[in-house]
Amino acid sequence: MKRAVFYLLSAAVLVASAMLGPVRADLGDTLNYSWAANVGPLNPHAYSPSQMFAQAMVYEPLVRYGEGGGLEPWLAESWDISADGRTYTFHLRKGVTFSDGTPFDAAAAKKNFDAVLLNSQRHNWLEFINQIADTVAVDEHTFQLVLKNAYYPTLQELCLIRPMRFLSPSGFPEDGNTGKGIKAPIGTGPWVLAETRKGEHDLFVANERYWGNKPKFKRLLVKVIPDSDGRAVAFQTGQIDLIFGSGGHGSGQIGIDTFNRFASMPGIETAISAPQATRVLAINSNLFPTSDLAVRQAILYGVNKAAMVKHIFLGVEPMADTLFSPDMPYCDLGLAPFAHDQQKAAALLDEAGWKQEKEAGYRTRDGRELAFDVCFVGNDSLQKSVAEVIQGDLKRLGIRVRLVGEEMDSFLTRQKSGEFGMIFGDTWGAPYDPHSFCSSMRKPAHADYQAQIGLPMKEEIDRKISEVLVSVDEEKRQELYRDILTTLHEQAVYLPLSYMTNITVHRPELKGVTFGPTKYEFPFELMSRER
Amino acid sequence: MLRYIAKRLLILIPMLLAVSVVVFLILRLGQNDPAMSYLRLSNIPPTDEALAVARQDLGLDLPLPAQYAQWLGKALVLDFGRSYVTGLPVLSEILFYLPNTLKLAGFSLLLTLIISLPLGIWSALEKDRLPDHATRAFAFAGVSMPGFWLAFILVWLFSIQLGWLPPLGMGGLDHMIMPALSMSLMSMAINTRLIRGNMLDNMHTRYVLYARARGLPERVVVGRHVLTNSLIPVVTAIGMHVGELFGGAVIAESIFSWPGVGRFAVSAIYNRDYPVMQCFILIMTAIFVLMNLCVDILYAWLDPRIRLQGGGNR
């Protein structure tokens, strides 16, 4: 019997060791990357489950968002805007073909625009789509857009990854309605989707017909790794070559602490992008007690953001003093920051009649306690830490902060309904900031609308936003933005915390790793491996 | 016996129906709005208009009873709707991922048996000696260690430090070792102790004494008489282990990026993908009930003293 047991155990060990093998990374012409989900059907005119970074690899825009918000010619070599700001004439780049060989021309451009307009209801969150009156293929290489009004962010919104990029006519369904799906994801971009294995990976190959800089890697394998810790292990064990995307919790590629761990390891290169969007909390001007301007200002002075940036964001996200980074178009206004100053904050509250009877207690006015909710996504450890720091900082001022951590949907419902004292509500980043984000402030779908609705000048702010979107005079536009953003800053309806960034982690052999112009544009085509 | 099986299978129908009602109500009576999740996943601002379009697209604009009736009507013909996230039929999605989970769970079960059987027997034969103490320590560690914690330790040791095993993904057998171990360690520990205990109990029974008195060699006494009888309760335990394995798969698949139904369910829960969650729970319920049925049948087959209710005239 003992012998039998011995044989059984030995057999088990043998089987196990026979299955062992060295872990090999794919080397050579394949760049290994990872994403939390498969890239989806890659319909350029639709949203989830198509992943934005992959849509940007396959499809291209007429105009591209460049450094500092500048606009660069892309599939349109140049464009003219009529004096009334309503007609945009695009001169299309010659010699561009889709990856299947179909030429990209005005007819193809019109077919794509018309397909998007066919489902305009689905895209009406984007004001530009609502503004389109007509699309005209003037000749083979000239495409014209006629708008209902002079809508200045037209070019900025054409830079978006979706819904306005171009699918080959051969990829269209029979009825031309891409809203119901597409035949195949065929674009003009540097990459072609070659294979999808559900739950495992997506394989892209270089587009041999690409008109621009052809990718240096022949293949790009995107492995499905939903978990950020799993991704870190995959990098460490050589399963992937690159970590690229936003850092932090939730949809982040890896946690900020993991990023810093890699940054301190020899033989690993890491980088942090310029600000991509702002991590911000909206303060409700329409609900007691944050309806009091003095309270809002005291919050801004009372929160120690420098400490937060150092200890929570670990230096990966720089401190934000204004709603939009000064790098964003029209946003370099030189607004005076609310620097951390507990005494000033306490003086503001004293002046406004908020009395603290006992040193350890909370302030009151007319028998009502100075207390409100700070709402965050419960399983977002970064938001939770920030909320706790705010709670601690404001307690020292005699303000009671109740922490409300909920799951994502309840949190979004609160943003929409206005049931919050303070709530996280990041800006959307380039190319949405500032125009799309400001535009959305007028609609009761956002924390911004709810945060601002108690301001005595809310109507005026909304009017100016509506005005700036259709202004054709550059100086006037700058002036209007100055008014809008200065008012919001002075009215203290936002507590900007940090500027969100993208991060990269790779080994030195991988060259050409640079950040894209917007959050979800990853320039894989520039990357190569040094042998 | 056949009547018993038929009866048990028939009970499955009202059971699944009840589960479907409870699951439907639990999911829908919360404050969550899947249309909101859909817009969030799509990076679309949740304006009233966008929400209305999303609700219409997802069939959420109907009253709750109508939604349930519509769902049930389709479910009866095995149409469980489309995933809110992928837009694909739920059943085909689950059936796509299920074989991967079965593969992993099957391997885990095999690992449980391969390791716990000899360990349990060895421990019983070497009672109160070093091997017995060692297996006791193993069993103690096994039941105390959460699967996810073991998973992280395994990854750290075998992938990061030693570089022997791939840390994630699906591929050859080497991809299965760590997830399977993390799923099955607890079952191994329980089984080892169970087999040891049963063996020791049986060794002192009268039929064993009689077998020895007949002059049978010890190998035959232990192998044929003691072991066979000791394994019967293990069958029940294995039935339970299968359930545990599916539960463990949810965690292990997420940690090891194994494209199974467990990981698919976790992402469905995160995304409030109701049709997927409903179908997943129903299929898991059916698997549990069917596993229990299999255990009962196996039990009766192994031990003729046990008679199944309604199966007395088999």
Q: What does this protein look like?
A:
Chain A is an alpha+beta fold. Chain A has 16 helices and 22 strands. Chain A has helices spanning 2-19, 52-58, 106-118, 127-131, 154-158, 228-236, 256-263, 293-302, 305-311, 342-351, 381-395, 408-417, 435-440, 447-452, 458-469, 474-490; strands at residues 30-35, 63-65, 71-73, 76-81, 87-92, 132-139, 142-147, 191-197, 201-206, 219-224, 242-246, 269-272, 277-283, 364-365, 368-369, 371-377, 400-406, 422-424, 494-500, 502-506, 510-511, 528-529. In chain A, the strands form seven sheets. A five-stranded mixed β-sheet of chain A has the order 17-16-18-13-19. A four-stranded mixed β-sheet of chain A has the order 1-10-9-8, with no helix packed on it. In chain A, helix 8 packs antiparallel against helix 10 and helix 15 (458-469) packs antiparallel against helix 16 (474-490). The longest helix of chain A has 18 residues, at 2-19. The model of chain A is unreliable at 1-10 and 12-26 (pLDDT under 50). Chain B folds into two domains: 1-77, no CATH class; 91-310, MetI-like (MetI-like fold), CATH 1.10.3720. Helices cover 76% and strands 0% of the residues of chain B. Chain B contains twelve helices and no strands. Chain B has helices at residues 2-28, 34-41, 48-58, 64-75, 90-125, 130-144, 147-161, 174-203, 206-213, 218-255, 261-270, 274-302. The radius of gyration of chain B is 24 Å and the shape is flat. In chain B, 38% of the residues are buried. The model of chain B is unreliable at 310-314 (pLDDT under 50). Classes of the chains: A alpha+beta (531), B mainly alpha (314). At the A-B interface, helix 1, helix 6 and helix 12 of A face helix 2, helix 3, helix 5, helix 7 and helix 10 of B.
